[in-house]
Design goal:
alpha/beta; 6-stranded mixed β-sheet; 4-stranded antiparallel β-sheet; 18 helices
């Protein structure tokens, strides 16, 4: 460009000839002549200049067909490369052509134009978007992966988050139900992707909802809407919420003792967002817009939909119920009977004849057993010699208490302590912490003496009046 500037200056202002300028700058006269005329500049070429392509219509149509086939198959890792297209041109069409020519042409065909989107607006109460996210937390000081369900009301941007261990169907349904109760009603549409927890078959407009999801939708009177595959922008509001919740609600990593405690934290964070936040491009606060949406929601029905995975299971000989690869204890009197087990996203509830007999935190590991000492205490009284080896005792009492039980020689004393422990766990453990030796603990716990029977009330036995039998038989008058 500097030489171009000097040529133009020498020609137009100093009126030097092409020959003189070429000799002065040591540049070819043709180049000087071209720039003196001012018909072009060094940084641009005339239209049509450069190498002409050798791709004819037949090759062009063949390449288009290959790329269209890739689009229809929709496989990210199994599609035509430029080299494979070049090989097929030579094999199928019998045309010998340079691979670099095909590479350049295919690259131009595949050049992506940045996708643009249409801004959307939703009426109050019209729709909510739902999705799943994942994060790491410390549960009882063990770092684990958890899944959290996210829901966002579209008109107000009001968020709801709830943590689960697994993305199963009962967690999915429970998340939707809890979210609807949190925002205060049911929208006309719920927008979701094509995950198997919600979709039985198909995708997008042709997706068929899972039976339980369809039943939930019917009960709460909303329409199920599924996004097209790979089109996350169709539920961009909740996609943003997933990242926002992970970075703002779970950083630093929460240290909790239970998922229930984590859900309490997430719920409080969502309530703070609603009460304090205002979306930049919207006129009203999130709280004001959510209140307007609640007036347009479909009211929640009085019956709360049962979102659990429900099974009827027979109690085995050890008073255990097997559910989802784990076993949970029930009162021993139910051995051999059928009980109803309801598995929610967080709990295992066990029912018998419309009465809830046990509730456990749901375990998603395998081959574990969970006992309740109160389910076996009466059976232990019938089989007292088993108390030292009984799994319900070893797995439920604290180690310090179990060490005390091992020092005792009489089952009656062990059962006495177990009854005291069930009656007041804190009292028994405080005695063990306060005593300097197990002998002192024996005395303070007031253990009964071996073989001694405590008789509280004297039993009086009256002599029978046998004469009444003679009266009944008619042998003697009254």
């Amino acid at each position: 460009m500097n030489q171009y500037e000097r040529i133009r200056f020498l020609h137009e202002q100093d009126h030097l000839s092409v020959r003189e300028i070429a000799r002065m700058l040591h540049i070819a006269r043709d180049t000087v002549s071209k720039y003196c005329k001012g018909e072009t500049i060094p940084s641009q070429r005339k239209p049509g200049s450069g190498r002409k392509t050798v791709i004819n219509s037949e090759i062009n149509e063949f390449i288009n067909a290959c790329l269209e086939e890739d689009r229809q198959e929709n496989l990210r890792k199994q599609k035509h490369t430029a080299k494979r297209i070049h090989d097929r041109v030579e094999e199928d069409l019998g045309i010998i052509i340079a691979e670099s020519t095909i590479r350049k042409f295919v690259a131009e065909k595949r050049e992506k134009i940045k996708e643009s989107f249409i801004p959307l607006v939703y009426d109050p109460g019209e729709a909510v978007q739902i999705d799943w996210g994942s994060a790491k937390v410390y549960l009882q000081e063990e770092r684990i992966d958890i899944n959290f369900f996210c829901m966002r009301e579209c008109s107000s941007d009001a968020p709801f988050c709830m943590a689960f261990i697994r993305q199963n169907q009962e967690s999915f349904l429970e998340g939707i139900q809890s979210g609807l109760e949190f925002i205060g009603g049911s929208p006309r549409r719920i927008i979701f992707d094509n995950a198997k927890v919600g979709v039985k078959e198909g995708f997008g407009h042709y997706a068929v909802a899972q039976d339980r999801y369809a039943a939930l939708a019917a009960h709460y009177a909303f329409k199920t809407v599924f996004c097209n595959p790979g089109e996350g922008h169709e539920k961009s509001l909740v996609e943003d919420l997933v990242g926002y919740a992970r970075n703002n609600y779970m950083v630093p990593l929460p240290h909790v003792d239970s998922i229930k405690e984590l859900n309490g934290i997430l719920r409080k964070k969502c309530e703070q967002y609603i009460s304090q936040h205002r979306v930049a491009h919207k006129e009203f606060s999130v709280a004001q817009m959510l209140e307007a949406a609640r007036k347009c929601f479909i009211p929640l029905p009085p019956y709360r939909f049962d979102t659990s995975l429900t099974q009827n299971i027979q109690v085995d000989d050890f008073s255990l119920v097997r559910f989802d690869y784990n076993r949970y204890s029930v009162p021993f009197r139910l051995t051999g009977k059928y009980v109803t087990v309801k598995g929610t996203g967080l709990e295992v509830q066990i029912w018998y004849q419309s009465n809830q007999i046990a509730v456990y935190d749901r375990c998603f590991k395998r081959n574990n057993k969970y006992f309740r000492l109160e389910h076996y205490i009466e059976l232990l009284e019938r089989k007292p010699r088993s108390v030292w080896n009984a799994m319900p005792v070893r797995d439920t009492v604290p180690p310090a208490l179990f060490r005390l039980l091992q020092t005792l020689e009489e089952p009656k004393q062990v059962l006495f302590i177990l009854h005291a422990y069930l009656a007041d766990k804190d009292k028994v453990m405080s005695i063990l912490d306060r005593c300097r030796s197990y002998d002192e603990a024996h005395l303070e716990l007031e253990l009964p003496s071996p073989g001694k029977v405590d008789v509280q009330n004297e039993v009086k036995v009256s002599m029978p009046e046998l004469v009444r039998y003679d009266v009944l038989l008619g042998r003697r008058a009254i």
